[in-house]
Amino acid sequence: xxxxxxxxxxxxxxxxxxxxxxxxxxxxxxxxxxxxxxxxxxxxxxxxxxxxxxxxxxxxxxxxxxxxxxxxxxxxxxxxxxxxxxxxxxxxxxxxxxxxxxxxxxxxxxxxxxxxxxxxxxxxxxxxxxxxxxxxx
Length: 137
Hints:
CATH topology: Tetracycline Repressor, domain 2
Distance between the termini: 32 Å
CATH superfamily: Tetracycline Repressor, domain 2
Structural class: mainly alpha
Strand content: under 5%
Order of helices and strands: HHHHHHHH
CATH class: Mainly Alpha
């Protein structure tokens, strides 16, 4: 597992928020730099390209999802409880902050995002659908 610094974590958090609010094509390093009060070069130091940053955001989301579904407490939940929890993430996110789910944001821009992001998006979607299918069976 790759260790991230507080700065990298903050950049990933901001990029994730922008992805969910504006989509990949709707934000730039300038947006993140403005939020942090730094120059764009500071963002490039941690993530050389926007593509690399986007991939890191998706990978972190995928890793967190795997941690959640492999958590012993989650495995003991009934299928209905798992689904209730899963869907509450999205309804709460939308109600609280106007964001949409990361997968949905990326899927709407699928044909205009770089290939590495497409691959990460496909992997995320496969993992989500696989879990949903297993939970419903």
